[in-house]
Amino acid sequence: GSVLSAVPASPGIAIGPAHVQVLQAFDYSQKGESVAAERERLHTAIGEVRRDIENLIQRSKSKAIREIFITHQEMLEDPELTREVEQRLNDNESAAAAWATVIEAAAVQQAQLKDALLAERAADLRDVGRRVLAQICGVETVAAPDEPYILVMDEVGPSDVARLDPAQVAGILT
Q: What is the reported pTM?
């Protein structure tokens, strides 16, 4: 096998097979089936993600992680985002195209804020956005190995960390 080196976030040595997760590519049409069908598709996906986030909040022992997910719930219910997505649905865009466009534009805008803490929320917005997009597109996350492993990802979002089983993850490499 190959050896990977990185800057440590905490001291220690981790040995195990690498479990590489790449950011999911979503394949979707720009044009919607019908406004009603696309609206239903979007609301169903948001509902699924909302339930998933609620479960993560209930399971999380960390107050900081719970607060991140409460913020994610608030992002799902943001009236400005909802209004912009609805506008695009009414212009016959697909639910996936409308959602992806609005979320990315909002994330870019958020990342440009002078306040560093607020700018960091762009990653949260993209995290929530990807989760809803995965639901709309029917893309499932890759199952983790049954043995302890080292997670290798380009970008690890808060929901990724919260889903990890500490007994199974020997290390994280980004």
A: 0.83
Residue whose structure tokens are 């043995």: 147
Distance CA 149, CA 35 (A): 44
CA-closest candidate to residue 32, choices 106, 85, 77: 85
CATH number of the domain at 27-140, out of 3.30.160.390, 3.30.230.10, 3.40.50.800, 1.10.274.10? 1.10.274.10
Q: ∠ at Cα 34 (32, 38), nearest 5°?
A: 65
- The model's confidence at residue 133, banded by pLDDT at 50, 70 and 90, is very high
Tell me how far CA of residue 7 lies from CA of 14, 16, 30, 70, 150, in angstroms. Answer: 13, 18, 40, 30, 15
